[in-house]
Amino acid sequence: MSATDATPRRLTVADIAKRYADGQRLPMLTAYDYPTAQIIDEAGIPLILVGDSLGQVLLGYESTVRVTMTEMLHHTMAVVRGSRRALVVGDMPFLTYASIAEALDNAGRFLREGGAQAVKVEGGARSARIIEAVVKAGIPVMGHIGWTPQAQHGLGGKVKVIGKDRTQARALLADALAVQEAGAFAIVLELVPAQLAEAITERLRIPTIGIGAGPGCSGQVQVITDLLGLGDFVPRHARPYADLRGTIAEAARRYATDVEAGAFPGAAETVRMDDAILDEALGRGVNDRAGAGQSGADRDIPVGGIPLDRDL
Ligand code: KIV
Predict the structure, then answer these.
(1) Among 95, 192, 296, 301, which is most buried by a count of CB atoms within 10 Å?
(2) Cβ(53) – ligand 1 distance below 6 Å
């Protein structure tokens, strides 16, 4: 293996475009921390999204609206440190791209401070002007239309599929085209009827990444806690590929049982030192060791102020 192979090159938006042009489907996962990023990067996931979903699935907020730039940058830096090959996309939080000036500033922070290679912006036609300015500044943008969680208060609060009626379907197609024309390199379609998502995908030159949008998209994204079975519920569109909640609970129960029974730590998890050195340090004789003298042997009672370990 050459030095170049040992340090894999990070994927760029051009690599993603090439995979899309070659007809490869694109798997994307969210990640919020160093070890998860490391594992999914080594597993070959080409796109990692540091989603603002971290507000709900990691920080316990009731919605993504409370997530701040400081929180996003903190987690983005960890994901970037953990990954070597995947293209890392930082999710612009609520109200951090309300104006072009704010969008440029915050998108720039994702690249400069967070180390991400791209940002994601929610909204179709309404965000096109912002997307265009950020792309023109040299920052790759992933769009996000359909159910856009940051707009949930405007969309009626309740999570729902977007695009089922004719007006919504047309608006969604217009949104997708607006995001593409603004220069986005890819677009997330969230909670969109499968046939509409497929029709949008066929009409775009950029890849669509679906979540709850059926199999006709160019790629798929899942929230990592859904994929791993870590959340307290499984959304209908998700497929848990593991039961980590069960695995963690079982490990915690077994650990508690072992600690309570004095079975952890055992010899394998314990470091010992030379008893003679400890005797010297404590100023005691062999017979003063814990458990010694139980047979009634004479003891060396040390002089000095160091307490015997059985007295501690
Ligand atoms: O924040 C997030 O995880 C997302 C995905 C659901 C696309 O935006």
Answers:
(1) 192
(2) yes
Q: What is the domain count for the chain?
A: 2
Choosing from 190, 202, 250, 280, the catalytic residue is 190
Are 154 and 284 part of one and the same domain? no
pLDDT by residue (tens digit) across 238-258? 999 999 999 999 999 999 999
What is the rounded CA–CA span in Å between residue 51 and residue 217?
19
Q: Write out the residue range of the structural domain in which residue 171 sits.
A: 3-240
DSSP states along 198-255: HHHHHH-SS-EEEESS-TTSSEEEE-HHHHTT-SSS--TT---S--HHHHHHHHHHHH
Q: Note whether 41 and 151 are same-domain residues.
A: yes
Q: Which of 188, 192, 224, 230 to mutate to test the pocket of ligand 1 (most atoms within 8 A of CB)?
A: 188
Q: Compute, in angstroms, the gap from residue 306 CA to the centroid of ligand 1.
A: 60
pLDDT-above-90 percentage for the chain: 84
Ligand 1 atom nearest 53 alpha carbon: 1
- For residues 116 and 175, state if they share a domain: yes
Q: Is the CB of 210 under 6 A from ligand 1?
A: no
Cα-based angle 212, 74, 98 (whole degrees, multiple of 5): 65
Does residue 30 sit in the same domain as residue 142? yes
CA of 190 to the centre of ligand 1 (A): 8
Q: What is the mean pLDDT of residues 115-120?
A: 98
Q: What number does the ligand 1 atom closest to the CA of 221 have?
A: 7
Q: Indicate if 73 and 206 belong to the same structural domain.
A: yes
Of 154, 33, 139, 39, the closest CA to residue 92 belongs to 139
Q: Are residues 50 and 115 in the same domain?
A: yes
What is the 144 CA–ligand 1 centroid distance (Å)? 9
Let me know if 280 is a catalytic residue: no
Question: What's the CA-to-centroid distance between 134 and ligand 1, angstroms?
Answer: 20
Q: Is the pTM of this model over 0.85?
A: yes
What would the pLDDT profile of 18-29 be if each residue is shown by its tens digit? Answer: 999 999 999 999
